[in-house]
Amino acid sequence: MFEVLFLGTAASAPSVHRGLAAHVIMAKEYRFLLDCGEGTQRQLLRSGIGFRRLNRVLLTHGHLDHILGLGGLLSTLIRWENMESLEIYGGRWALDRVHDLLFGIVLRDEQNNYPIELYELKTGVFFEDKDFTVSAFPVTHRGPGCFGFTFQEKPRRPFLNDKAAALGVPMGPERAKLVRGEPITLTDGRVIHPDDVLGPDLPGARYVHIGDVGRTDNIVQYVRDAHALVIESTYLDAESEMARLFGHMTAAQAARLAVEANVKTLILTHISHRSRERDVLAEARAIFPNTYVARDFDRFVISKEKPVERISPSRDKNRVTTVEANDIDEDE
User: Fold this and answer.
1) Taking the model in full, what pTM does it have?
2) Biggest CA pair distance of the chain
């Protein structure tokens, strides 16, 4: 299961209700900060999650509206937080700009004992836990070294309780061993193998996150069968020529990608202040009905067992409400 917290959902300039691009992806005990636009550290505080365990930053690309918040965030972390290091992953061009920002400005003339590691992304898996992986894939936008990210749970074989009971496998540590792939010997001498009580592999949850992108034909293979896809929607279809010129996506293009790639849920972000949220949503849903337009501080829970759930903070009350996919969002 993955949980996504949207900290900033605006395009290149913030609006009253939308900050610049920043998202936190939570998986088990891990937290990944994906992009870090200006104002991200304040959004982290407003969200209530703070800075703890936020020691891995994934950058979709090196444009300033996606990286400029790293300066303030690092300045805070090295003074007030107790993390051992900060790992930043991105394309070469993005990392060069981050290096100039952090070491040429934030840490210039300062004695720093805080380890900062910059890792250049290549296509493929770059982070692995026993239960999930994180991989990068190339996307087309303005400038080199732009990437999307896939969070993929590893497949699991379900334990077949009926078969285990029929074979006389008792409850307790014997079943745990079989789940781990170890054979057991029953008291009557029979040997039970994992294949006797485990079903076929079932794929885990698949979450794909794409930042700014101008083409979809070369990313379908990476998006296919995602339980949730987050992708930009800077323009509407009436502005498709402008979208093409600036290497961005329209709501309709994002929706067509979701259809072609058999995506379960589409979540649009990077919303321009020129567009009404209602119009973005209507354009996408006309093609792909199970679409959301993310707002700052929305949370989405992504699991293979049930449909994607959106938990949205109310703007006028200090409470959280669940918003269904077929609810029409109000204009900002």
Assistant:
1) 0.86
2) 74
Q: In Å, what is the CA distance from 163 to each residue of 39, 160, 172?
A: 55, 6, 15
Q: Which structure tokens are listed for 303?
A: 């699991």
| Type of residue numbered 309 | E
The catalytic site residues sit at: 65
Q: With H, G, I as helix, E, B as strand and everything else as coil, classify residue 126.
A: strand
Q: What string of pLDDT tens digits covers the 332 residues of the chain?
A: 999 999 999 998 999 999 999 999 999 999 999 999 999 999 999 999 988 889 999 999 999 999 999 999 998 888 776 667 899 999 999 999 999 999 999 888 877 777 899 999 999 999 999 999 999 999 999 999 999 999 999 998 888 899 999 999 999 999 999 988 899 999 999 999 989 988 888 889 999 999 999 999 999 999 999 999 999 999 999 999 999 999 999 999 999 999 999 999 999 999 999 999 999 999 999 999 999 999 999 999 999 888 998 998 855 434 343 444 443 343 33
Domains of the chain: residue spans and CATH: 2-156+201-322 (3.60.15.10), 161-197 (no CATH)
**Residue 154 C-alpha from the chain's centroid:** 16
**C-alpha 235: how far from chain center:** 21
CA dihedral sign of residues 91, 94, 96, 99: negative
